[in-house]
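[Meeting: bench + compute handoff]

Bench side (C.D.) handed over the final construct sequence. Compute side (W.E.) agreed to return the predicted structure before the next meeting so the bench team could plan truncations. Sequence as handed over:
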Amino acid sequence: METFRNLVRAEFAPANTYLNTAGAGLPPARAVSAVTRTAASAATGRFPDLLPDVEAGRAAFARIVGVHADRVAVGSSVAVYSGLVATSLAPGSEVLTAEGDFSSLVNPFHVRGDLTVRSVPLERLAESVGPRTGLVAVSSVQSLDGRLVDLPGLRDAARAHGARLLVDVSQSAGWLPIPADDVDYLVAVAYKWLFCPRGVAFLVTPADLGGLVPVFAGWASGEDIGAGSYDRVDPLARSARRFDGSPALLPHTGARPALELVEELGVDTVRAHDIGLADRFRSGLASLGHEPVPAPGSAIVSVPGLGHRRGELSRAGVEVADRKGHLRAAFHVYNTAADVDRLLDVLFG
């Protein structure tokens, strides 16, 4: 635990009480330094080779979610990879989603126009999988209020009906262990709990690539990236790298050290820290007669009816989010018990 605290102190020094990691995480000092050095070098006309950073980040994310790096594609957004999965579905396929899930995950299925998209309450997702369901798409942790999906139950229901499972772990990767082998497709942006600069996202595919067609394959998708950038890319990478988008190289130079920090901290240790603070906030709310949205085991706490206090809290140096009238607080490694108490004090003191 002392190593954990020392690492956090060395990498983070927020000037306020920052409790909005579910919106965007704070970058560690090592990532800021890496991006600054690279940008400064580029300004002088010296452009370093940043593709090794892309590959190191791919490998680090693979280790974090427990898969081989050959199953990880690198992109820039969840919507692009959700759209890629959408293109693989046969016309008329049923896609099952959770009501109120994040737009980047679900919208690509709606705009295709020839799919049947059915939304049900999160707690009824597993029981709603049926013989017509071709895909279930859901966030592991809901952005709006921090509720966790019953992933084992959903996995079993999907397998029983032959449906594929797409899980967005943008709000859990970094603090919640991810059983990537339990799903068909896993997607995440990395600028929240994984500390990366914005512009970095990942897709995990099955070992057989899951029937996906690399419809946006470009120069970065070839088996031999150095073979050239003109005419047809042939052959495509045999691994999930065939689904790479052209990487945002500057963000990736910060993503590499950020993801390495996640590994050094340890997801299990981060989880215990984050949930401990979230539970402290829940207990404080209960003692004052306020009930958050039930989300046991989540690092995100959402309190109905208090979202309008966001501006007041920000002026007092406490950053939270207002999501549909809910005050949403998200607790991460750079937060302490004093931050929880400060939030409660400004709200109710």
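W.E. noted at the follow-up: The first helix runs from residue 2 to 11. C.D. will use this when planning the next construct.
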